[in-house]
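Session log. Operator J.P. requested a structure for one protein chain; no other inputs attached. Running the standard single-chain path with token output.
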Amino acid sequence: MREAIVFGVLCMGLALSACKDQQSRATAEDVAARVNGVEIMIAEVDRLLEQQLRAGAQQGQAPLTPAELAAARLQILENLITQQALYQKAERLGLLPTEEEITQGLQQFKRERGLSEEGFQRTLRELGQTEEQFRREIRRQLAIKKLFDREVTPRITVTDREIEEFYNANKAQFVERRGFALARIVVTPDKDNVPDDAIGAEAAERKIREIYEQLRRGADFATVAARRSEDPLTAARGGDWGFFPETAEQFPGALRSRLLAMREGDITEPIRIGNAWLILKLVRRIQRDRELALDEVRAQIAEELRAQREQVLQTAVTRLALAESRVENLLARRMLENPANFGGLRPITLPTPPPTGSTR
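Structure written below.
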């Protein structure tokens, strides 16, 4: 089961957890949709939209036009409706998780993102959520996962013949290219909400040089990466960054030359790319292209075929859950009735970002 389907839209899920909290004081104009009578609020749609816009602004994306904002609201609402319909189906089938399972899901969330308790509480405050609301959403997402596990997983089979046919039809995909398997430690001057966070350019440079000295004195790279890297995803894997062909765009010419001169196990000195500092470790080097044998990729092919079928069957379960639900999309209705201003929705105003290079 792919966790991205269940946990990949965390903030969207967190928004759903607050729907019931607001129903008692909602007016008709506050309600975006109803799924079997359960209301989804405009405020929750806008909260998610603001999060998307803030992330886009940080990546330099242009502001959305009113029409684009309206379309984004409808897409967010469609996803919220789908989540609600799936949860209600799971609830009808008695697939709600226990309190212990919810606690385990909460700990998994913290662990995968490298969050201390303080960092977790800070994340909740930034999202405008309480821990109770977060636990309620973990319950929702685990229930949906149990629904997919019951309705989808038992129906997926992959035979040896199918694996062999896929391999023979796609041999060009199964070539190990010349390149590098790398691990990395990352430090940025930004506020990353991780333990030992370096805030500001001077602190970031000081921290990366401290880490470099640790490694030169013989400290284990994976241990240091897990404890001190400010990239939670690679830190959780001991710094493992994956495999890159020699021609990968991530590596400017000088860095590529440096990697080509390294031996397996070597590390680079601190390298500055943009506003981030990195230390790279050459874990493994592939010096010539090599066609992979079937036995080397059998498990990979089986997983790919399972994933394809899983996605189709999960879509089928989702469509049935929606078909079984009584959905009232009030936001879409109001947009049709008043297209001049897309239903009278308020504009979205984001806070002005701090100047480039400033500390937070």
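Operator note: The chain has two domains: 3-151+326-344, 178-290.
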